[in-house]
Fold this sequence. Notes:
The protein has 275 residues and is of the alpha+beta class. The protein contains 7 helices and 10 strands.
Amino acid sequence: MLRVSKADVVAEPFPHVAKEGILPVEVFDALRADFPDQGIFEGQRDTHGKTGSRTGSGFDLYRGDDAYRRLVSQSEAWREFDAYINSERFTDTFRDVFADHLDSMGLRIDLAGSRVEGAYHEPRELLNETATAGDRLMSAGLKVLDRFRDSGPVPLFTRLDIHRSFGGYQKPPHCDRPNRLCSLIIYFTDADAAGLEGGELLLFKHRQDKPVNQYERHPSGDNVTEIARLKTKPNLGVFFPCQNNSYHGVTEVLSNSVARDFLYINISGRSRSLW
């Protein structure tokens, strides 16, 4: 379903794809036509508060939520897209697109033998916006224990998160959670047409050259250099493995009344870290 191939991959500073028209036009248009309205997002916030909210406002729909179940039951487009994301086909897309880079990205698992558990969904209570002290301690410990770790297959699962952000939303340079295999962001807002100020996706490169497994996943801003700045556009997709130097962030959204609508999609492992 994704319109991506090996030819779309930019190798440096980490393998990634940034592509307009990442979904077939008819698929994207159908998803946009049934995109949740503001009342649905407000209902989510009333029900769940800000627990696990990636936007910080509570305007997030996650698989497992009642509002998400209603969306996929009522919309054929979202039902079919959810079925694709929550399947081995999506994982095969990642395997195929990044095949030339799998041996160099520092992956600790047997990806070929790992399979998606379609019935599992990650509870929102497990999501943290920032690395905890435990996360940082685990990351340091894994470097010490690296040579003793099993590199076998692990159970995989997927996320398809639907987000709406407003003024104040921003992200510092970071990598996504270490149990994430890859991330896919798809935008619905046309920043220029809507008058959205800020909210640009930034890609970064570390100032030091290191083996990929030695990079810190949450670098200081002084240690990275901006290498790309992307305005949101409808059907713009950014797809990348969550290796230790896949640094990205978001400039602060300055427009209080313009919604920045996007999907955050990933394949993850049922283990603390894949890297």
